[in-house]
């Protein structure tokens, strides 16, 4: 069992959250799937709970306003030492700022932004809340990947905002870039060309570690969710793309260990 670093290096994915219409039923789904327990979090943006494993913060779940008919989606947050400066960098680099920056109580400051292709992510300036407090065990987020049309242009945006290094693998049928901080992989960009789903567009995909991918996919279905891509072997482990009952898409993975 590995504790996450006390304070995340700027640009590192440090938190994931999900805004939904039916918060109690969503808690039941993820509690049964990942063994999460819940406690109230900052209420500045409406009803919000933090998911915990072994008493440590793992992810956030919030309720959308009843009049907002928005698509539900997992949102990764990237660490920053200054949410205002990072939001300005997003804007000046061709992205958009949708929410904030604003104060989340004593926890910290946040902004919700999008890259030039429309993929939404968050900025998190930690105060009392540093982010995900446990890493590498089942039920925790282990990776974040941007699914976009092509990586060559969009990687420049992320480098401009966060100063990432990048390792690209581009061939006739493969377009993949790994983002690096201090030489270490922190996230990836996957260009899928015309296979990008029209109804979703460019988006960030969160990967959650599980003990057994096939069992997790079956449990997702049993709990009222959906299996969008059945379990298969990949370069990082055995993965399945699934969705919760409200349609929020994520990947479960049994990582190579």
From TrEMBL:
InterPro entries given in the database record: Anthracycline_SecMetBiosynth, Glyas_Bleomycin-R_OHBP_Dase, Glyoxalase_6, VOC_core
UniProt cross-references to SUPFAM superfamilies, sorted A to Z: Glyoxalase/Bleomycin resistance protein/Dihydroxybiphenyl dioxygenase (SSF54593)
Domain VOC: 12-126, 140-255
Coiled coil: none
Annotated protein name in UniProt: VOC family protein
């Amino acid at each position: 069992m590995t504790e996450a670093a006390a304070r995340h290096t700027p640009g590192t994915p440090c938190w994931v959250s999900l805004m939904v219409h039916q918060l109690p039923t969503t808690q039941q789904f993820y509690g049964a799937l990942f063994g999460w327990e819940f406690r109230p979090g900052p209420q500045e943006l409406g009803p919000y709970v933090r998911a915990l494993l072994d008493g440590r913060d793992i992810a956030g779940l919030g309720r959308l306003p009843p009049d907002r008919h928005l698509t539900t989606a997992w949102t990764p947050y990237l660490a920053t030492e200054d949410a205002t400066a990072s939001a300005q960098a997003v804007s000046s680099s061709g992205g958009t700022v949708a929410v904030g920056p604003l104060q989340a109580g004593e926890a910290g400051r946040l902004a919700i932004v999008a890259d030039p292709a429309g993929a939404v992510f968050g900025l998190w300036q930690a105060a009392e809340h540093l982010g995900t407090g446990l890493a590498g065990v089942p039920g925790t987020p282990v990776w974040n990947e941007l699914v976009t049309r092509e990586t060559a242009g969009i990687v420049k945006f992320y480098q401009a905002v966060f100063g990432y290094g990048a390792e690209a693998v581009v061939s006739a049928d493969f377009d993949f870039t790994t983002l690096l901080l201090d030489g270490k992989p922190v996230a990836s960009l996957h260009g899928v060309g015309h296979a990008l789903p029209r109804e979703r567009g460019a988006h960030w995909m969160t990967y959650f570690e599980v003990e057994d991918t096939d069992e997790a996919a079956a449990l997702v279905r049993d709990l009222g969710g959906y299996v969008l891509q059945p379990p298969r072997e990949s370069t990082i482990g055995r993965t399945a793309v699934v969705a919760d009952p409200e349609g929020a898409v994520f990947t479960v993975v049994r990582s190579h260990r």
